[in-house]
């Protein structure tokens, strides 16, 4: 039996991977392994491994997250992660390691798998996020990987452009969308009870992460957003906290301060969990901030996204995404556009470029059948030359 080992370091990651992990767990010819790390194991970020344990047995808990979110602190966490994943893989001896996305702990896991000659499957490669160093990590993980599962065709083409063999790159769509189609989401009453917060006539979901290539600007940009949100009347604002990226703790402190002063109309959650998060998308009018979820999940609910700043620049987007510079007056103009009659009509015709679910079974089939002999010896795929270099 092939041993398929998943690595997850955050609440968002494990939610996206849930149905894929479940499909591997239920497969009679595959052995499921799971390593949790990063924010999952941090009290500051909600000890979200406990939610994972409700559905899966965790084989290894890899502690790597330092209390510092400075450049030095993150780099030290990456070093500790590399050491720890090398030991974990040596113990578990997986046949394939599966990682998703672009976070620094995922990069360390990929590097450890590379050195141990363990085949690596990468999900959500080929994407572009010009405002974050995540992009460089993501493309580096692609070069360390052997099987690739992209979320839309332009990203598949980009992975091939990076020199990966076309027959190793599969565009099945975004696996996180499986959750929407497989699970009965909470009713409004159930959601409000779970959140201990009442929704209003107007509701916005706000997530703002650091722009890691502009580490000094995050505080100013979030300040502009909070200034804009203060002026809204009759609007309930639900915040989800930032990741453990450079400067993330400072942003979370700012959000906590805003909610403390606006308790009637706002609430903040360290981790909503996948069920509550997707259930909330049913009832909010739009997403605001700079999260990839506004591009990937939000269009499936035919709600708008106001994307602020450059963190997601370059990502494939639907017509439901409005871009705004991080200035309070422009953010307010964007929010007004979200509620405009013209834009609301446009949302009725929106199609999600990241697919419509049914991804888990397709990926599992490849994890089961893809030939692994000599897979670690990759040949660079050269595109036909169109330039005189």
Structural account:
This protein is an alpha/beta fold and 389 residues long. The chain has 2 domains: 2-172 and 359-369, Rossmann fold (3-Layer(aba) Sandwich), CATH 3.40.50; 186-347, Glycogen Phosphorylase B (Rossmann fold, 3-Layer(aba) Sandwich). The protein contains 15 helices and 13 strands. Helix 9 links the parallel strand 8 and strand 9 (235-240).
Key terms:
389 residues; 13 strands; 40% helix; Rossmann fold; 15 helices; alpha/beta; single chain
- Uncertain stretches of 5 or more adjacent residues: none
Question: What is the topology, as strand order, of the major beta sheet?
Answer: 3-2-1-4-5-6-7
Query: Any idea of the CATH class of the largest domain?
Result: Alpha Beta
Shape: globular
From the helix content, strand content and strand pairing, which structural class follows? Answer: alpha/beta
Q: Mind telling me which CATH architecture of the largest domain this is?
A: 3-Layer(aba) Sandwich
How far apart are the first and last residues' alpha carbons, in Å?
Answer: 47 Å
Order of helices and strands: EHEHEHEHEHEHEHHEHEHEHEHEEHHH
The portion of residues forming beta strands comes to: 15-25%
CATH superfamily of the largest domain: Glycogen Phosphorylase B
Radius of gyration of CA atoms, rounded to a whole number: 21 Å
Mean pLDDT: 93
Helix content: 25-40%
**What is the count of DSSP helices, taking H or I runs of 4+ residues?**
15
What is the gist of this entry?
This protein has 389 residues and is of the alpha/beta class. The chain has 15 helices and 13 strands. The protein folds into 2 domains: 2-172 and 359-369, 3-Layer(aba) Sandwich (Rossmann fold), CATH 3.40.50; 186-347, Rossmann fold, CATH 3.40.50.2000.
């Amino acid at each position: 039996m092939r041993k398929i080992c998943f690595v997850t370091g955050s609440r968002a990651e494990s939610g996206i991977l849930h149905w894929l992990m479940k499909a591997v767990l239920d497969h009679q010819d595959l052995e499921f392994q799971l390593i949790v790390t990063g924010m999952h194991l941090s009290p500051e970020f909600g000890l979200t491994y406990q939610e994972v344990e409700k559905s899966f047995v965790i084989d290894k808990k890899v502690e790597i997250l330092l209390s510092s979110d400075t450049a030095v602190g993150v780099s030290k966490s990456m070093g500790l992660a590399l050491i720890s994943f090398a030991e974990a893989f040596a113990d578990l001896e997986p046949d394939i390691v599966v990682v998703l996305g672009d976070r620094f702990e995922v990069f360390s896991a990929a590097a450890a798998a590379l050195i141990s000659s363990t085949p690596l499957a990468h999900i959500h490669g080929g994407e572009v996020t010009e405002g974050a160093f995540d992009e460089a990590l993501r493309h580096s993980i692609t070069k360390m990987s052997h099987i690739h599962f992209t979320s839309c065709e332009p990203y598949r083409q980009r992975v091939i452009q990076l020199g990966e063999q076309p027959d190793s790159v599969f565009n099945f769509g975004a696996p996180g969308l499986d959750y929407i189609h497989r699970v009965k989401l909470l009713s409004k009453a159930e959601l409000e009870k779970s959140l201990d917060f009442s929704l209003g006539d107007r509701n916005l979901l706000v997530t703002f992460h650091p722009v890691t290539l502009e580490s000094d600007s995050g505080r100013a940009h979030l300040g502009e957003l909070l200034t804009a949100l203060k002026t809204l009347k009759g609007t309930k604002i639900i915040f989800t906290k930032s990741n453990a990226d450079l400067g993330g703790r400072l942003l979370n402190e700012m959000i906590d301060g805003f909610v403390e002063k606006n308790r009637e109309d706002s609430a903040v959650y360290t981790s909503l969990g996948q069920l509550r998060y997707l259930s909330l998308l049913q009832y909010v009018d739009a997403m605001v901030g700079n999260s990839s979820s506004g591009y990937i999940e939000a269009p499936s609910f035919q709600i708008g996204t106001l994307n602020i700043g450059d963190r997601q620049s370059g990502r494939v987007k639907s017509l439901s995404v409005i871009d705004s510079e991080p200035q309070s007056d422009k953010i307010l103009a964007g929010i007004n556009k979200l509620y405009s009659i013209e834009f609301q009509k446009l949302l009725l015709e929106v199609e999600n470029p990241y697919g419509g679910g049914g991804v888990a079974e397709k990926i599992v089939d490849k994890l089961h059948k893809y030939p692994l002999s000599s897979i670690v010896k990759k040949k660079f795929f050269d595109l036909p030359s169109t330039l005189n270099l």
